[in-house]
Amino acid sequence: MLLHESIDLLKIKPDGVYVDVTFGGGGHTKAILSQLDTGKVIAFDRDADAVGNLIDDDRLIFVPEDFKDIELALEARGFPHVDGILADLGVSSHQFDTPNRGFSFRFDGPLDMRMDRRHGRTAADILNEETEERLFEIFRNYGELNNAKKLVRLIANYRPSAAITTTRQLESVIEPCIDPKRKSKYLAQVFQALRIEVNGEMESLMKLLAASGDLIRPGGRLVVIAYHSLEDRLVKRYMRSGNLGGVVEKDFYGNPLTPWNIITRKAIQAPDNEVINNSRARSARLRAAEKKINN
After folding, report:
1. Which of 176, 235, 177 is nearest to 206 (CA)?
2. β-strands 82-88, 216-226: how paired?
């Protein structure tokens, strides 16, 4: 999503080294490669299905891992510094549209939601095993649900009779707390919360942002596409302050001490034609910052 806008903001140099931390279908990586000469792209994706989208290009280095360990992964491959990092966060269209992955409430399927199916707990494991207190935190913090307490009570009351294992079953269990007028929005928030918890998405994003300041060379850029307010707020605060806390430190004269120049004063949203062709683009928010040359 926002393919052309994000690539333009990356300000690609033909001999530069760029990182696409969310390879997915490979669209952004291919667009970067099309502007390179002797440069390189290091692409990350922990989903084994993404391997099927790889292209035969000597300038592409694929890392089948979570981007949270980006510093170690790049160092191991001989790239302690890069010219730009691009992150198209969230779930890929393939993941959303594959029923047996359990990412979407549009299909009946197993409550899996793992981006890396080689290990880790599934959404079903979390629903059936976590304490009520922890479930409340997940739905309140990651789903931003105002009635999270009622939602968790419905789940807790149901669990003794049977395990919750499918998307349709979960929808049935929590139906009493869903406003029919905003059913799709509510279910999207529930599934978002579970997915973030299953995949440790906020932890990965925080580690990526924290590492980007050291990884990106002066004049290089950090470009991020976020799909929900939790991610977007974190990205906005980091680009403004240079730290995860969002506190802008100042020098003796009151000048802000931050390693970044913000390129997008306001988040860029997908154009109407992209939203018409792909409704998921409606929530996309694109932000970019450039590493200061003299910091």
Report:
1. 235
2. parallel
